[in-house]
Task: structure prediction
Amino acid sequence: MKPAPFAYYAPQEVDEALELLKQHGDEAKILAGGQSLMPLLSLRLARPGVLIDINRVANLAFVRRGANGGLAIGALTRQRALERSAEVASQSPLLSATIPLIAHFQIRNRGTIGGSLAHADPAAELPAVALVLGAELVLRSASGERVVHAKDFFLGYMTTAIEPNELLIEIRIPGLRQQAGWAIEEVARRRGDFAMVGVATAVELNGNNTCQDARIVLFGVGEKPERMERAEQLLRGQEATQTQPAEAAKAVSEDLDPVADVHASAEYRKEVGGVLTRRALEKAFRRAQKAIS
Amino acid sequence: MSFKRTIAVTVNGKSYERLVEARMTLADFLRGELDLTGTHLGCEHGVCGACTILLDGEAVRSCLLLAVQADGAEIMTVEGLAQGTELHPLQKAFQDQHALQCGFCTPGFLMTAFAFLKETPKPTEAEAREAISGNLCRCTGYQPIVKAILQAAGKTTT
Result:
């Protein structure tokens, strides 16, 4: 249970980190909160030749109001800081409600938002929420910066669009509209465990109680968080009636093609994915209706 | 190259300086280099919570940190709770409530509870249960541990 030897760097500036990535990108791993990477190192499932510890890099941990509303969050911001942030609670209540579902407070004291997104565990909450909220991820390398939308960021099992020479710098989260509702639901064996199946949703209603937009993302069901587009389509343009969530949930259950593992069968995930979707949509609609009235 | 580094830390008010391998975990550093073996190692990959310590006032799992990451930090371990021979109120409460049998998980529970009560001095029972959800105990069971935390918080327990 001891990590294999590695060359260790602890840069203090972003540029210094990017230079190290340029030199060692292929054999380097970024150490952020370490709550996923450290177990991998200890179990020797990961044996990077170089470890670049970004915990001392200045100006990577912040929560700011975004340019067009919403939030700009530094990649190194601890999950615990997000949990305690009044700014996050007011600007992105879904994100705020999601954080307590992540592991335990000792883990959240170290774990970072950027680390969780870059790790891209398919059962993790933050990637799903980034997708639902339409987050944008700012990736920087020694040669420049690009912004990748969450829908183009998660490519597969623990695989993202981050190139070996790039560092995730910032996460931009659009503000929810006034008439928006949201919810996150999950089933885990024990408090703090990874979800066996979970759903995050955001909906928008207009003054006539008509659903303008609906986004539904399931997690813990496959290689990456998945948008359920047919179910979303069923809701758009329709009145938000009491039976709508059940219809969308049925579509989710039908469309899911989940993995089976030691924690749950595929059949269980299909069934529970539907049930959680219905519960989440009911909550989201209620929140949206309350926001309008 | 950078396989080794000299680090300076303060643990329970005492300063230490050591040359360590970069790959050494903070838990191994505390136990092996500083002889502070009160911090226990159960799973060594962040599941059991036995190695919980305070790093700059926040409860963290010391098996999920490298010793080099603690350079310049202030650390508190279970050895820092008692004042001489006088037990900390939390330790006294654990004793009163029989909140330990083999005692292996106890340092982690104590440090978790210490950090929790600092932020939530008057917790409900549900809050106390949630706070210890990241720590595993395999013999005592959690009921006496919850009672001990509530006792330490000055809440009457039955």
About this structure: Chain A is about 35% helix and 25% strand. The mean pLDDT of chain A is 95. The two ends of chain A are 57 Å apart (CA to CA).
